[in-house]
Amino acid sequence: MSTPRPTTPWFRRRAVIIPLSLAVLALVLFGACSLYVNNASDQVKKQASDSFDVTYRLDGTSQDVSITYTGPNSALVDESNVSSGWEATATLSGYDAAHLTAANSEAESGAVTCQIFVGETLVSESTAAGPGGTAQCTATNQQLRDAAKG
């Protein structure tokens, strides 16, 4: 007569333990990923709500300059026949980058310097001279954010 094999409870059977362990591992990984995604989402929302008062300045000796700069909502603003000493301020959102291009007219032989400031912090500066000379200043949204922190 053979002895009956002892029965293993259902929760200790290999066919149950392995899938159950994998399911628990998947839930733990899903939870960790969810926390990471939520944190990243919060950071993006915070950056989107940031705003920066950016000051664009024109310096040098030129008196006939055409400029283009980034205004609110990433709109490009064009102005003609401006001279050294020109200044404009725009409030940019957390995603915007700041750009200022200053180009001498073909008849202008002076020097032109473009500058981008956040508060009193100079973020970008460039100089060009002579007829058609073009100075270009650019500041990324991260550079603007860093300058705003001081």
Structure description:
This protein has 150 residues and is α+β, with helices and mostly antiparallel strands. It has helices at residues 14-49, 141-149, and strands at 51-60, 65-70, 76-82, 87-93, 98-104, 111-118, 121-129, 134-139. It has a domain at 51-148: Sandwich (Immunoglobulin-like), CATH 2.60.40. The strands form 2 sheets. A 4-stranded antiparallel sheet has the order 4-1-6-7. The protein has a 4-stranded antiparallel sheet with strand order 3-2-5-8. The radius of gyration is 30 Å and the shape is rod-shaped.
Percent of residues in helices comes to 25-40%
Q: How many distinct beta strands?
A: 8
CATH class of the domain at 51-148: Mainly Beta
How much of the residues is beta strand, in percent?
Answer: 35-45%
Helix-and-strand structural type:
alpha+beta
- Output the radius of gyration: 30 Å
How many individual helices? 2
Terminal-residue CA separation: 88 Å
Strand order of the largest sheet: 4-1-6-7
Instruction: Describe the sheet with the most strands.
Output: 4 strands, antiparallel
Question: pLDDT under 50 segments (min length 5)?
Answer: none
Task: Give the averaged pLDDT, no decimals.
Answer: 86
SSE arrangement, N to C:
HEEEEEEEEH
Using the coordinates shown, work out and report the CATH topology of the domain at 51-148.
Answer: Immunoglobulin-like
CATH architecture of the domain at 51-148: Sandwich
